[in-house]
């Protein structure tokens, strides 16, 4: 299925480290399209694995991760208003 | 159609002011679900109007706005991993 993942990691409680961990885990499974936004095609098993890995780092009181799932990518159109690039090289 | 809007506003060139303007415009049309993420049901006309309003403030070199469009909300499942709340009251 086609996944869009957006995350917001609090800066509290060593947030920069959590942000970096979460970024790296997402990058293993998905394509980075905006500062804290990833997308990609995952199987149910891969999504479950991603969730398992992320749950070790997400602070349930402070951080937010939202997953949008569409059975097919074609059901979801995408438009860029403004800058469009892969920021990975600036971040890692 | 059902819209998910995610934005990333650079802190450069008076970014905090742009961020706040963009936030307020999005809030007029959509529901705030995460720091820089909005969702909602819009007509084509409303989406065009939102784009027109945002274009006045988006810096095309610095800022990124991504729009995901689905013809029907039911084609897009949503999951929250971690915190789930409306942050508006903390921001405005």
Automatic annotation (TrEMBL), chains A, B:
Write down the EC number.
Answer: 3.1.-.-
List required co-factors: Mg(2+)
- One GO MF term, please? RNA endonuclease activity
Q: Which SUPFAM superfamilies match?
A: TTP0101/SSO1404-like
Q: In which domain of life is the source organism classified?
A: Bacteria
For Mg(2+), which residues are the binding ones?
A: 8
Q: Which Pfam families match?
A: CRISPR_Cas2
Q: Which UniProt keywords apply?
A: Antiviral defense, Endonuclease, Hydrolase, Magnesium, Metal-binding, Nuclease
Could you tell me the Gene Ontology terms of the biological process aspect for this record? defense response to virus; maintenance of CRISPR repeat elements
Q: What does this protein do?
A: CRISPR (clustered regularly interspaced short palindromic repeat), is an adaptive immune system that provides protection against mobile genetic elements (viruses, transposable elements and conjugative plasmids). CRISPR clusters contain sequences complementary to antecedent mobile elements and target invading nucleic acids. CRISPR clusters are transcribed and processed into CRISPR RNA (crRNA). Functions as a ssRNA-specific endoribonuclease. Involved in the integration of spacer DNA into the CRISPR cassette.
The entry's family comment says: Belongs to the CRISPR-associated endoribonuclease Cas2 protein family.
Subunit structure of this chain's protein: Homodimer, forms a heterotetramer with a Cas1 homodimer.
Name assigned to this protein: CRISPR-associated endoribonuclease Cas2
